[in-house]
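Lab notes, practical 5.
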Amino acid sequence: MTDLDDVVDALKDVEKAVKSNASSSFWGGVSIVFFFFIMTNWIGDMWNSKIITAVRYGTSSDNVQVQKEPHDCDFLEAPLGRKPCRYVKIVSMVKFSVSTTGNPIQSFDDGKTWETVSEGSARPRGDYVVVSYTKHMDDEQ
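Output from the prediction step:
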């Protein structure tokens, strides 16, 4: 009879190990998905940070303005479901320099055309970068 009790105990141990392993596999998978979701959002936010933008455009981070990205077109925003819109990131750069006559000048088109900076307006040192978002409606067909 001892042999049968040993077999039952061994089967219970195996059943317990299988249940424990299945549970940890499920939570392991959930944690991997959660980690991936957090990392992709964090990396996206990091890539659009003031410091990275300043390095990318060769200016000081003090001269970078990054607007918060709107999320009202996202699938999970109320009302839930697909929305006929999306946001497009726009990076605008203002270049500053001094004209041959010594007057401060600025360019809004990457130095193709220049205009005189109005008297008394504050002018940052170096180029100025603005990251903004514009809403685009998808064509409904």
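Observations recorded by the TA: The two ends are 76 Å apart (CA to CA). The beta strands are 64-66, 85-98, 104-107, 115-116, 128-137.
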